């Protein structure tokens, strides 16, 4: 008989271990500091930024680096003075970098624009009206030529259809004349007869090959075997 169900009078005991107080992880202090908005998150750090000034400053630094000039970081100036200095620097850079060929073309275009503005508007309007009249006359002549072409094509198509219809009617009339005389066409009045019209007995073999096919019926009383058995032994 087993004794597994009986209590133990001297249970096993663990070794004495030096353990301190145990705490769960979620009982420990957390979130002891507050988060502050960083630059770019729409807080107080973004209110004092001048994005346009920063962009102009970055562009000036880029052009200076491209030309080989060293950029020294000066003390922060006031916003208005800084903007003015950066704009002057960018304008100077653009002036120095402008190609003389491009400048010459720009001057020529400006002179041509001024000449066009000073020209007589009435003369230009008269020329434009004359050009419009010529264009309208050309379009009218083109439309008339197209109309004549369409009329000619329709007339040719109609004449062709009329000729075909006349030829067909003539052919039908000749056929009726040729086949309408019974003296010239005696074969048309012959009566077609079968070869067995004069035979005394007809259809002698009808039904000889008609054998009833076997059918499966899921009923013993209506099966072929039962019918043959009943007709043979029970009358």
From TrEMBL:
Source domain of life: Eukaryota
Which Pfam families does the annotation name? Cwf_Cwc_15
**Compositionally biased region (Basic and acidic residues):** 84-116, 142-177
Acidic residues composition bias: residue spans: 117-141
One GO cellular-component annotation of the UniProt record comes to: catalytic step 2 spliceosome
Q: Which family does it belong to?
A: Belongs to the CWC15 family.
Q: What does this protein do?
A: Involved in pre-mRNA splicing.
Per its record, how is this protein called by name? Pre-mRNA-splicing factor Cwf15/Cwc15
